[in-house]
Automatic annotation (TrEMBL):
Top-level taxon of origin: Bacteria
InterPro entries on file: Lon_proteolytic, Ribosomal_Su5_D2-typ_SF, Ribsml_uS5_D2-typ_fold_subgr
Domain spans labelled Lon proteolytic: 154-236
Keyword annotations: Signal
Protein name in UniProt: Lon proteolytic domain-containing protein
Secretion signal, residue range per the UniProt entry: 1-35
Name of a matching Pfam family: Lon_C
Membrane-traversing stretches: none
Lineage of source species: Bacteria, Bacillati, Actinomycetota, Actinomycetes, Kitasatosporales
C-alpha cells in the first residue's frame, strides 16, 4: 500500500540527495594548487653554505649588493584542494589559487614532477651561462661556470643566473657592480640568445622580494599587470625582455638615468 507524504516531509526527503550532492561537491578535490611567497636566494652569494656561482678560468669580481632569485611555494601535486580551500584563499593577498597544471605542467607523480623540475633547472642554468657569455663576447673562452642552488627546481631563475654571471665577470662594464649596492630581485626564464620569458606567480614573488629587502624587481614585460596587482609598497618594477636590455636598465638605474617601468 502506498502512503502519501505531507508536503513538508516530501520536501525534506527530496532535499536529502541534493544536500548530499552539495556536500560531495564541496569536499571533492579540485584541479587547483594554493601558492604563497617562497624563499629567495642571492645568486651573488652562498646558498646552503655553497657559492651559487663559481667561475674558473677568469677572475671574479667581489659582489656588491644582492641579486635575489625568487620562488613560490605551492601545495604538493598529491594534495587535495577542495572548494573550502579555494574559498579560504581566494581573497587573500598573500595566497594565490592557481590551476594545478600551471604549477605542475608535467608528470603525474611527485617523483616525475620533481625530476622534470630538476631537468628544467639544469637546462635553465645552461641557457643562462650561454646567454651571459655570449652577451659578454666570451663564449669561446675556456671558462668553467658552475651554478648550484639547493632545493629549487624549474626554469624561473634563468635571468638572475645570467645577471649574476655578468656581474661576477664584468660588473656594469665601468668598474662598478650591476646592483649599485642595492638588493635587486626578479624572475624570468632565459634562453641561450638572452630572451626573457614569463614564469607565473609574479604577484607572490614580489612579496617574497620585498620581505627579504629588495627595492627593485625585474619582471618579464608580459607579466607587468600581474606584478602590479599586489605590488608591495616600496618595491619598484622594471620590465625586461632580454638580457641586454636588463643590463642596460640596471646601468641606467645606477647612474640615475631614466629607467623603464610597468
Amino acid at each position: 500500500m502506498l502512503s502519501r507524504l505531507s508536503r513538508p516531509k516530501a520536501l525534506a526527503v527530496c532535499a536529502l540527495p541534493a544536500v548530499a550532492l552539495l556536500a560531495t561537491a564541496l569536499l571533492a578535490p579540485l584541479p587547483f594548487a594554493v601558492a604563497q611567497p617562497g624563499t629567495t636566494a642571492d645568486v651573488l652569494g652562498r646558498n646552503k653554505g655553497e657559492p651559487v656561482i663559481t667561475i674558473k678560468g677568469a677572475p671574479s669580481r667581489k659582489a656588491e649588493g644582492r641579486l635575489l632569485m625568487t620562488t613560490i611555494v605551492a601545495t604538493g601535486p598529491d594534495a587535495q584542494v577542495d572548494f573550502g580551500d579555494v574559498l579560504d584563499n581566494w581573497f587573500r593577498t598573500d595566497r594565490a589559487v592557481m590551476p594545478r597544471d600551471s604549477v605542475y605542467p608535467s608528470g603525474d607523480t611527485t617523483e616525475e614532477i620533481e625530476r622534470h623540475n630538476l631537468d628544467d633547472m639544469t637546462e635553465s642554468q645552461d641557457s643562462a651561462t650561454a646567454a651571459a657569455l655570449s652577451y659578454l663576447g666570451r663564449a669561446d673562452e675556456d671558462l668553467d661556470v658552475r651554478l648550484k642552488l639547493a632545493d629549487v627546481g624549474g626554469p624561473s631563475a634563468g635571468l638572475l643566473f645570467a645577471l649574476g654571471i655578468v656581474d661576477k665577470l664584468d660588473g656594469d662594464g665601468a668598474g662598478g657592480g650591476l646592483t649599485g649596492g642595492r638588493t635587486i630581485a626578479g624572475t624570468g626564464t632565459i634562453d641561450a640568445d638572452g630572451r626573457v620569458g614569463a614564469v607565473g606567480g609574479v604577484e607572490l614573488k614580489t612579496q617574497a622580494a620585498r620581505r627579504d629587502g629588495a627595492s627593485v624587481f625585474l619582471v618579464p614585460e608580459d607579466e607587468c599587470s600581474q606584478a602590479k596587482a599586489e605590488l608591495p609598497e616600496g618595491l619598484r618594477l622594471i620590465p625586461v625582455t632580454d638580457l641586454k636590455g636588463t643590463v642596460k636598465s640596471l646601468r641606467a638605474l645606477e647612474q640615475g638615468r631614466k629607467v623603464p617601468s610597468c
